[in-house]
Amino acid sequence: MDSDRFPLGFFERSDESADATFYSWPRLVTHIDDDAIAAVGALYETLEIGGEVLDLMGSWVSHFRTPPAHLTVLGMSAEELHANSDATATIVHDLNADPLLPFDDASFDAVVCCVSVDYLTRPMEVFAEVARVLRPGGPLVCTFSNRCFPTKAIRGWLFAGDEERCDIVCRYFHFTPGFGEPHRERRTPIHHPGDPMLAVWAYRT
Predict the structure, then answer these.
(1) CATH classification of 2-7+16-203, choosing from 3.40.50.150, 3.40.50.300, 3.20.20.80, 2.60.40.10?
(2) In Å, how far from its chain's centre is CA 123?
(3) What is d(CA 196, CA 203) in angstroms, rounded to the nearest whole number?
(4) Quick one: which of 57, 62, 63, 190 has the fewest CB in 10 Å?
């Protein structure tokens, strides 16, 4: 159980109603500013994310400068996913209700998760599934800022600062078999006036 490794109440949320209800109407907006979006795209380019890629907890935009050859986007809103022009395939799936990914073993060259890791209530179960569907050497890249839907983000995330949030995601990787040592970076300058963009990623061993 994920909760065994974190303080009591860490994965609770102020709104524990069904996530499917919360995401039942589309939000066709960007949740980070242009500089943060550019930082995500630059990181994907630097890490050479391509081939068969899974965008986890995605929506109508995936922030790639150059879309991968085959992009599967898994998210909560069918309308948002349908609007994603980079997507080759889309799947509506609630990872908090069911962390099992509906894909075969070793299906993807890379998995990305942009500004969504803070909503996972069973993160190590999801990370374990990502390890299963990743091919050896493929990365899971988590990018995040300080903006979120506060009623749906886990309490442990809400009470953490930027670097502590990096620590949280690093711990998810450390507690999940199948990943190497995580890397962490601030992708926008420390005194950047806009949205900060941070990243933690690790490779499938």
Answers:
(1) 3.40.50.150
(2) 10
(3) 24
(4) 190
181-190 as b/e, with b when 16 or more CB fall inside 10 Å? Answer: ebebeebbee
User: Exposure of 46 by Cβ count < 10 A (0-12 exposed, 13-18 middle, 19+ buried)?
Assistant: exposed
- Predicted TM-score (pTM) of this structure: 0.94
Residues 78, 84, 89, 94, CA torsion sign = negative
CA distance 67 to 54: 12
Rounded to 5 degrees, φ, ψ at 103 are: -135, 155
Task: Specify the DSSP element, H or E, that contains 40.
Answer: helix 34-46
DSSP state of 135: P
What is the tens place of the pLDDT at every residue in 164-183?
999 999 999 999 999 999 99
